[in-house]
From TrEMBL:
Lineage: Bacteria, Bacillati, Bacillota, Clostridia, Lachnospirales
Organism: Mediterraneibacter gnavus (Ruminococcus gnavus)
Protein name: Uncharacterized protein
Amino acid sequence: MKEGYVLKADAAKYLTPEPITYEAMKRKSEKAAQTALKDAKASILNAAGIGKVEAYCINTVLAELKRKGLTPEKEGYKRISRETARMVIRDRKGIWTRYYTDKEGLKDWLLWKLGLKKETVFDRMKRMGMTGDVLQDMELLTGGKKR
């Protein structure tokens, strides 16, 4: 069979429209509404200069605020919101780099910088490359120099 050739019986199946029923109309209108909402959100974000990286940062912080139980009326919520906006603008290049290399690291860094996540000693050790072995860690801290 040649490529691009469609049998007439198969073509008729694809050309017949879906029967007009209430369910079909409802599906089409819901899909159109979802598409319109998605397009509106995208145009608003694009007009404001907010891309997917900035949206990821904002959504990460909002999810953590919600998890902690902070509401928009509280002063802590307002302070963190303002600081998030400043940080996303100020550290744009670093945030972009972290987003494309290590999303989970970006999330942890954002929450740590905003004071929403306290770094434990073990997290700090892991970040510094320490293993828990005294000799190896001392060599790491001294830069490989022996006394």
